[in-house]
Amino acid sequence: MAPRMAVEQQKKKEFLFKVLVIGELGVGKTSIIKRYVHHVFSHGYRATIGVDFALKVLGWDADTTVRLQLWDIAGQERFGNMTRVYYKEAVGAMVVFDVTRATTFEAVSKWKHDLDSKVTLPSGKPIPTVLLANKCDGDGGDARGEWSDTAQLDRYCRDEGFVGWFETSAKENINVEAAAQLLVQRILANDVSSAQGCRRCEDTDSVKLTTRNGGARRRKCCQK
Prior knowledge:
This protein is α/β, with parallel strands linked by helices. It has helices at residues 2-11, 29-38, 83-87, 102-106, 108-118, 150-160, 176-192, and strands at residues 13-23, 51-61, 64-73, 92-98, 129-134, 164-168, 206-210, 216-220. The strands form 2 sheets. The chain has a 6-stranded mixed β-sheet, with helices on both faces. The protein has a two-stranded antiparallel sheet with strand order 7-8. Strand 2 (51-61) and strand 3 (64-73) form a beta hairpin. The longest helix is centred in the C-terminal third of the chain and has 17 residues, at 176-192.
């Protein structure tokens, strides 16, 4: 019996993935990480200085454990020279903007271009990145703009190379888990297929997004 258990344990797979969480100052990056890792939300705001870290352990399936090392990058760091160091060896990212502040959406493409210029997969392709439209619970008003046109945002994400986007709320725990799940799926797909070239996410053709009014809509997660 003991030898069989030893063989079964040897079959288990463990992964450690470095994931970046980036975006402008005050968009809720730290709150998203705290909600995802610790299942809490704090109304107190304290700006991240430089970079902070958190670890999330996922029992992905019966045979796979995924450890996510989440790097919380300060909003002002895009203007510094340290991001290349912070981004090194990352295999996935979340870019966050605040739906109540239009200027944070305007900065998304700058963050994405900065990311793509400083870190890539071994194949030379960009790391999988999810866009989070945060604070969709409505606190503080709603800066309607390009992000609120879902068809236009779908096109924007394809053009900018995002693997998908979600309306999120760290406060109300909306879509935080779903966004992370999609990102991990894409990271694992890259890891498994790294020697086989690019593979479509056939078994994740679409993802369900929760809207602010409690309804649902589907979003393609594959890049065209």
